[in-house]
Amino acid sequence: MIRSMTAYTYHEIKKKWGSIIWEIRSINQRFLEININLPKQWRILEPSIQKRIRKCVIRGKIECNLYVNNIIQNNTFIINKILIQKLIKAANWIKLQNNEGIIDPLKILNWPGVLNTQNKNINNINLILMRTIDQSLNDLILNRENEGKSLKKLIEIRLYKIIKTINKIKIYIPEELKYQRERLLLKLQEASIQIDKNRFEQELIMMVHKTDIEEELDRLYIHVQEVLNILDKTEPVGRRLDFLMQELNRESNTITSKSININITTCAIELKVLIEQIREQIQNIE
Length: 286
Known about the structure:
By secondary structure, this protein is an alpha+beta fold.
């Protein structure tokens, strides 16, 4: 099943001690790019979260945001006594130099690293966070798959239109051959050139060879069938589809350049439009 790279999921969990919100957004990107934004206290979880994302996503730009609200603290204060002793010693030395000032205990407590807290709920919250990120990622993948189903339908509609256009061009080919024969004959008559039957047939064969598009039409049809087959695969197929779009576009360009029949030229332009529409849709496929 193909997946879109465009998806969004929002997952909120409410507990007695507060609430957790996971917000994950995915957009199209040539490779995999992951941006994770966590509150400072939970940044230690970033490597584990990134590993989980890489396990289920191959391509796309992923923005993963965590919001932790109204946490009821159940904290134990930890005082860094060694750091306090060093700060007091330094403050006393400064006081001796200036012979003035006092040591404010509150300012020492506010010094970075002096006073730390240990939340007794933190381990329980971490377990919930990791469990719920898995749920959120599952929702994201489901959304990508649902969007992929819609993309597949749109692409298939245009592929079948391409097949119809190929068949239409094949109907016009005998008409083009007749036109080339009459055109060559008229040129020879206008130039008052004596027509040698064998020479005439050789010239006609060369002209037909230069404008022959049967091979391009066959390759177009083969590429379309390959795209239809790939759309039914389960692994990521976006890059393969993108390559096939280049091949389809190359064949349609060749048909346009070779054709001297207005009907075939019109059909070739229609092919190019359909291929471009498919290419735009494929840019969102993982």
